[in-house]
Amino acid sequence: xxxxxFNDADFPDMKNEYVLWVDIMGTxxxxxxxxxxxxxxxxxxxxxxxxxxxxxxxxxPMMDGAYIVSESEDAMKKFINKLFCSLSNVxxxxxxxxxxxxxxxxxxYGPVIHGKDIPxxxxxxxxxxxxxxxxxxLGLPMIQASKGEKMAPPFGxxxxxxxxxxxxxxAHRWYKWFSQSKGKSVKSAIKKYFEYSxxxxxxxxxxxxxxxxxxxxxxxYFS
Length: 223
Prior knowledge:
about 220 residues
């Protein structure tokens, strides 16, 4: 059995970046009803992420979600706008209620390390699988964004205090990515989604109290 050795003397300094966590709402319940349907939702999310990604954006996929990282505030803003606009169009244009899904996210700011920036001199094991190491992301903003996502409205972005302090674009509790006309269309589509959910809450394993909570958040966010 090989001994695991890590040379922490060569471990790089962290640098401050914007970290977004975005995922699909209710994947666990949806997967319990249909693995195929939930898997299609997940693939649509990742297809939209790929289309929204630019050279200044790093992506770390995590099944029904992803961490999105960038040093640039403007690049992160443009990514969010494109991703959420694209997936809101999917929601608006889907005619089958059961095939609709919602996303939400949260953004934080602070020190992170990308696996690609960890010197291979830190560990001989890291030289054996470059792709594996490149998929590592470390840092407190990951935790802050993951926790903050629970406070985000449907199709909305919650801004952690760390990013509200550091940023002009993300200076408020919720970042709003939509125009007035777009907001009306998305709000209407979300309302229809929740009407269906209320009528089938037991079947889709979506508690009424959660539906009401998410409806209220969406109402305020898109008002």
